[in-house]
Sequence to fold (171 residues):
Amino acid sequence: MSRFDERQRGGRSELAPREEAVVGPRLHELYSSPEFLFRRAHQIASAAFSEACKHLDLTPSQYAVLFMLREANDTSQNELGRRVSLDRSTMSVVLRSLSARRLVRELADPADKRKKRLQLTDTGRLIMAEAERLSARTSQSMLSPLGEEKARQLLALLEQLSSTFPSDSAA
Fold:
């Protein structure tokens, strides 16, 4: 049985602890563990992004790839995967989807014809611009209950934690 109930408050759902007697006192160990809390936070953030960008048919991983391609533009699949912390298999699936939608194009690497370079298409740029606007609104909405100072602290701590581990440890 889950510790969380979804409740509607002011037009948004919020998670509330169920009665401790219902879930058992030892379950606090699970519900307060970093692994559980990070997974739950990821679940909430991914759902919020997916809902905001559903008309764009864009996942958080696809957004990260489009964002990085916009910044780096002409890059290899391996380099792009490293920059957005996606393993090869996931990166391949994401790129296949984005290429099929003509948001990304592959070009032969002039230095090595066996390698492919990736670029954002004009359509990819348009989708990226809309997704970026929606993502910023979603991020602000998710962090607003914390207030500005706590939101800044949370992001700083997450950045510190993320930078402690190599990119490939997330894969």
Remarks:
- The radius of gyration is 19 Å.
- The helical segments are 20-23, 27-31, 34-52, 60-72, 77-83, 88-100, 122-143, 147-164.
